[in-house]
Amino acid sequence: MAVKKDLSINYLGVECENPFFLSSSPVGSNYEMVAKSFEAGWGGVFYKTVGIFVADECSPRFDNVNKEGLPWVGFKNMEQISDKPTEVNFENMRKLKRAYPDKVMVASIMGSNEQEWRDLAKMAEQAEADLIEGNFSCPQMTSHDMGSDVGTNLELVRSYSKAVAETTKIPFIAKMTPNCKNMEEPAIAAIEGGAASVSAINTIKSITNIDFENMTAMPVVNGKSSISGYSGAAIKPIALRFIAQMLQNEKLKDLEISGIGGIETWRDAAEFLALGCRNVQVTTAIMQYGYRIVEDMANGLMHFMDERGYNKLDEFIGCALPNIIPAEELNRDFKILPKFDEEKCIGCGRCYISCYDGAHQAIDWNEEKRRPELNDNCVGCHLCLNVCPVQECITPGEIKWKEGRKQVDVTVKQHYE
């Protein structure tokens, strides 16, 4: 049954038909590509980062974690900003905005000094961009005056944000690097400089695989390689952590963050929105599956909203954030024992082995029945639930209170999809 829900959202004063955007990357680097994505249903594009210089790229420049034709766990790229002339990129943005006035055009820019940031901001304004993103985070630039080396320098983040904010009234979004200990500090510096918000996260510095034939990392460029950016499903947990920490900071709690990092499905998108993001950006999933994934994302998100009674995105954006609390505030007065469904159990023994070798030796193995049996050593860690290959064969069961602890109502997750 078709489900229709309103996926429109206001982002930094700009009306968006939906929250799905191409991130600044190879998937949105020329007129034809972006036009095709708009036709497929994407709400907007963070156009591939434009600089004053034209990038000189290496070949090959991609690698992935998980070979043999399986979906990528992670993806590595050694690509820099746009390899097309600056004026061509801005002309493409202008043409796209005029051809697709209801789509959102975000000009992603990167300079190496204040004057370049000002010049690029002026060009973005002349190209009729709706928003401007400042790339403070690319981890594979050949110049230390650009990219993630800038993103970890609070003074440069502040001064470059100020340069753009003083040059144009178009809202400026600072793109954060995860190659840091604390993302709140550069985010605050960007806001102090005049940025309207931030986008996060960019790729993580990585070595994905070692090639034994050439004894270097992958990809191999004339027998050599380098450390560069990691993306894909593997980085989603890291992205969610950084976003939560920023939105829980008193100085950043009202930011309209654009979420990036490992978004492949409607559920991934919903998770970023539930934390408080106002839109999501996608690259790696498009590189695997093409622009059409936006159809699945939109349909899945609408079904999710329908099942939970939401009519608009704003009704659940940020709802998960208050329930993510410091570790010292978690209730530690009880343990939840696992419950085994003997009818669903296939007798594989994975719960027994994992508990015995990796946890608390809380499961005995009944050889005759080929079934697990819980003993008194159980601490309620739920490793068994996580390794079981059968959905809802092992679920949360009895709540046991630690001696002398006050009993209260406990919310227990019951269903594991």
Please tally the helical runs, counting DSSP H or I stretches of 4 or more residues: 12
Strand content: 15-25%
How many β-strand runs? 20
Question: What structural class results from the helix and strand content?
Answer: alpha/beta
Which whole number gives the mean pLDDT? 96
Largest sheet composition: 8 strands, parallel, barrel
Distance between the termini: 21 Å
Report strand order across the widest sheet.
3-4-7-8-9-10-15-16
The value of Rg in angstroms is: 24 Å
Helical residues, percent: 25-40%
Uncertain segments: none
Apparent shape: globular
Enzyme class: oxidoreductase
Subunit structure: Heterotetramer of 2 PreA and 2 PreT subunits.
Organism: Zhenpiania hominis
Domain 4Fe-4S ferredoxin-type: 336-368, 370-399
Explain briefly what this protein structure is:
This is Dihydroorotate dehydrogenase B (NAD(+)), catalytic subunit. With 417 residues, this protein is α/β, with parallel strands linked by helices.
Question: Which descriptors would you attach to this protein?
Answer:
20 strands, 417 residues, metal ion binding, EC 1.3.1.14, alpha/beta, oxidoreductase, Dihydroorotate_DH_cat, four-stranded antiparallel β-sheet, eight-stranded parallel beta barrel
Question: Explain this structure to me?
Answer:
29% of the residues lie in helices and 20% in strands. It has 417 residues and is of the alpha/beta class. Helix 5 (154-167) packs parallel to helix 6, helix 7 (236-247) runs parallel beside helix 8 and helix 8 (266-275) crosses helix 10 (293-308). The chain has helices at residues 31-40, 86-99, 114-126, 148-151, 154-167, 184-193, 236-247, 266-275, 284-289, 293-308, 350-358, 383-387, and strands at 9-11, 14-16, 20-22, 44-50, 62-65, 74-77, 104-109, 131-135, 172-175, 197-200, 204-206, 210-211, 216-217, 228-231, 258-260, 279-282, 334-340, 363-366, 371-374, 394-401. Strand 9 (172-175), helix 6 (184-193) and strand 10 form a beta-alpha-beta unit. The protein has twelve helices and 20 strands. An eight-stranded parallel barrel has the order 3-4-7-8-9-10-15-16, surrounded by eight helices. Strands 5-6-14-11 form a four-stranded antiparallel beta sheet, with no helix packed on it. It has a two-stranded antiparallel sheet with strand order 1-2. Belongs to the dihydropyrimidine dehydrogenase family. Belongs to the dihydroorotate dehydrogenase family. Type 1 subfamily. Pathway: Pyrimidine metabolism; UMP biosynthesis via de novo pathway; orotate from (S)-dihydroorotate (NAD(+) route): step 1/1. It catalyses: (S)-dihydroorotate + NAD(+) = orotate + NADH + H(+); 5,6-dihydrothymine + NAD(+) = thymine + NADH + H(+); 5,6-dihydrouracil + NAD(+) = uracil + NADH + H(+). GO terms for molecular function: dihydroorotate dehydrogenase (NAD+) activity; dihydropyrimidine dehydrogenase (NAD+) activity; iron-sulfur cluster binding; metal ion binding. This is Dihydroorotate dehydrogenase B (NAD(+)), catalytic subunit.
